[in-house]
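Page 42, continued from yesterday. The earlier attempt failed because a stray header line got pasted into the input along with the sequence. Redoing it now with the clean sequence only.
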Amino acid sequence: MDSWVRFSGQSQAKERVIRAAQYACTLIGYTLQKNGGSAELISGLKQLESHLSLGRKLFRLGNSVEALESAKRAIHLSDLVLRFCITVSHLNRAMYFACDNILWVGKCGLSPKVDQNKWSERSFRYYLFSLLMNLTRDLYEIKLLMEAETSGKHLSDKLSEDNGVVSRGSSSSRHPIALQIRLLIHIFRNNPPLLLDLLKNSCDLFIPLDKLGLYKTNPGFVGLCGLTSSILSILTLLHPWLKLKP
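This time it went through. Structure tokens are written below.
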């Protein structure tokens, strides 16, 4: 209950819930359309999706400032790679939110002359760059953990205990790819925040790729990716220990 109270009190949490509902509408609408659903129902879902998208933009007003503050904190990280990836990611997020705010102003009718297509493309570009930096950071974290595990003198014992790998000279040890996979499983099992962050960023990546035309999929796939990443984000808000730090 305490987790839920803390969760409901955050505007970011509300935005995540609305995001999940928005992409759920996208997924359901696409599924109904492919299966000959009611045109009226599909139209209603599209309208609801549009309203939810506009509502999300309202909750994101001012997020650029938060992203810039996060970038300022990341500058002081001792690890050079993490410092670069996290700082650049936050700076791109700040620009993404700024473009998003301009889009909100235009869609609300406060500034009808706003070029929606131009600013939407810009926002998705910044979003894509931010996600690429996040994924680079995730892969770097995995690399560090793999190096730490393989350099440990008790690696064989750990893998044997956690993943069923037998001692040296076994068939598994003669297959480095299989051993690497087991090592990854071992790392993810012991580092749930890293696994969740990797999954979330991987799902989110397909959204700007599709919107920018770099890798076209379909609304159903985009909806599924958005819904999945939203649920993972909600989990990290409900249980802060699942959020990757720093």
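Notes: Residues 116-151 form the longest helix (36 residues).
Reminder to self: strip header lines before submitting.
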